[in-house]
Design a protein that fits this description.
It is built from six helices and seven strands. The protein is of the alpha+beta class. α5 packs antiparallel against α6. The protein is globular and about 40 Å long.
Length: 138
């Protein structure tokens, strides 16, 4: 039923190669029913998917400066060419596929949310997500 969600319908409409990206951020929690909603989808793209994304919008620096991003559909979709120093191809290879869409494994989501929080950038929702992820993964 993910494919019926408006964010995923928008993502699919972009025509990115299905093996060229992974959903990061809180999207994997949404896919597994651990979040009821998310504000956007963070899509980490390899070179092939990034080239397609460039046809849809102009890149800009991501807020924390770790990557470039293309923001589409009034901010609902953010396509990034990196994710907090993780090798993009490795993130895609370790992804878990749900309804034909690749998602970052929850253990990796937990890892980066803790890293994010410990760097002083964490948000209130990250603390809640960390608690939910720890409980789910134990």
């Amino acid at each position: 039923m993910l494919r019926e969600h408006p964010f995923f319908r928008k993502l699919i409409s972009l025509g990115l190669p299905v093996d060229g990206y992974v959903i990061a951020g809180s999207g994997p929690m949404l896919a597994r029913g651990l979040r009821e909603n998310v504000g956007d989808l963070d899509v980490v793209a390899n070179e092939a998917a990034w080239r397609v994304a460039l046809e849809w919008g102009q890149p800009e620096a991501a807020p924390l400066g770790y990557a470039q991003r293309i923001v589409l559909f009034d901010g609902v979709i953010e396509i990034l060419d990196g994710w907090f120093g993780y090798p993009v191809d490795s993130l895609i290879m370790e992804a878990e596929t749900i309804e034909g869409i690749r998602f970052m494994p929850l253990k990796r989501v937990l890892e980066w949310k803790i890293k994010f929080k410990n760097n002083g950038v964490g948000r209130k929702k990250d603390s809640r997500d960390i608690a939910v992820l720890r409980g789910y993964l134990q």
